[in-house]
Amino acid sequence: MNLNAAVSTRIIQLLNERDWTSYRLAIESGIPTSTVSNIILGKCRSCNLSTIYCGQNIAFFD
User: Fold this and answer.
1) 3-state secondary structure the chain
2) Radius of gyration over alpha carbons of the chain, in Å?
3) Distance of alpha carbon 62 from alpha carbon 48, whole angstroms
4) How far is residue 27's CA from residue 55's CA, in Å, rounded to a whole number?
5) Cα 52 from Cα 36, distance rounded (Å)
6) pLDDT in tens, 25-46
7) What's the distance, CA 14 to chain centroid?
8) Which of 31, 36, 61, 62 has the greatest count of CB atoms below 10 A from its CB?
């Protein structure tokens, strides 16, 4: 499993655990909804850990 697939899988798990939508994650993290969708779908080739890190301070990642 590559990094993109691992991140996508983990985000989906966390969304399910917290009963969040990808839209809520986008709003809470400040990441554009299109970027969140692309990460989840594994289409984000230009995303790196800094894109994901910016949302670390929200409750989703606690």
Assistant:
1) CCHHHHHHHHHHHHHHHHCCCHHHHHHHHCCCHHHHHHHHHCCCCCCCHHHHHCCCCCHHHC
2) 10
3) 20
4) 10
5) 9
6) 999 888 889 988 988 898 876 6
7) 9
8) 36
Handedness of CA 6, 49, 41, 2 (dihedral sign): negative
- pLDDT value at 59 more than 60: no
Closest among 47, 43, 37 to 15, alpha carbons compared:
37
- Do residues 28 and 58 touch, judged by C-beta distance below 8 A? yes
Check: CB of residue 60 under 8 Å from CB of residue 28.
Answer: yes
| AA identity, residue 13 | Q
Cβ proximity of 7 and 52 under 8 Å: yes
CA distance 22 to 1: 22
